[in-house]
Amino acid sequence: MDRTEKSKLVTELRGTFENANIVVVSHYTGLNVAEISDLRAKMRAAGASFKVTKNRLTRLALEGTPYDQIGDLFTGPTAIAYSDDPVAPAKVAVEFAKKNDKFVVLGGAMKDVRLDTDSIKQLATLPSLDELRAKIVGMLNTPATRVAGVLQAPAGQIARVLGARSQQSEAA
């Protein structure tokens, strides 16, 4: 890799760090290509990205970004997971780490807030942004159906009373 490729990679990583809402740093020692591809696919499905990084270039890219404080995590074979959704990469990384002992979550950050491993695990238990949106839409739709049911109930009762009254007058 020559200087221009390295500077291009640093610029690309810096843009990634400036735009991401969360960065999760992990070690992937011993994972084979199929396992990393599986992890990438799971990240993509959750709306996150996963990238194996060069430590020295990543530390250069971190300078001047809100994620500058996580530079010390980049030792050994590291990879980053990042996304606009603050829950998605944490959730996928923690689930993958539970199933695969070779994958270890080291920590990360949400902009200027550093997260340790326990914080990442707690973040992974939260519902994702899409799940929260679905819950809000469900809560907004529920009152509308209840209002319609309440409004229809008196009309139904009146119709039943009138029907019963007409049957009484026919019988008499």
Please provide a written account of the structure:
The protein is of the alpha+beta class. It folds into two domains: about 5-125, Ribosomal protein L10, N-terminal RNA-binding domain (Alpha-Beta Plaits, 2-Layer Sandwich); about 125-170. The protein is about 60% helix and about 15% strand. It is built from six helices and five strands, in the order H-E-H-E-H-E-H-E-E-H-H. It has a five-stranded antiparallel beta sheet with strand order 2-3-1-4-5. Strand 4 (about 105-110) and strand 5 form a beta hairpin. Helix 2 packs antiparallel against helix 4 (about 90-100). The radius of gyration is 27 Å and the shape is elongated.
Task: List its traits.
alpha+beta; Alpha-Beta Plaits; five-stranded antiparallel sheet; elongated
List the helices and strands and how they pair.
Blueprint: H1 3-19, E1 22-27, H2 33-46, E2 49-52, H3 55-62, E3 78-83, H4 88-99, E4 104-110, E5 113-115, H5 117-124, H6 129-171
Antiparallel strand pairs: 1-3, 1-4, 2-3, 4-5
Tally of domains: 2
Oligomer: single chain
**CATH architecture tag of the largest domain:** 2-Layer Sandwich
* Helix content, binned percent: 55-70%
Termini distance?
101 Å
Gross morphology: elongated
Low-pLDDT residue spans: none
What is the CATH domain class of the largest domain? Alpha Beta
- Count of extended strands: 5
Please state the structural category: alpha+beta
Q: What pattern of helices and strands is seen along the backbone?
A: HEHEHEHEEHH
Strand content: 15-25%
Mean pLDDT: 86
Number of helices: 6
Strand order within the widest sheet?
2-3-1-4-5
According to CATH, the fold-level topology of the largest domain is Alpha-Beta Plaits
What is the CATH superfamily of the largest domain? Ribosomal protein L10, N-terminal RNA-binding domain
Radius of gyration: 27 Å
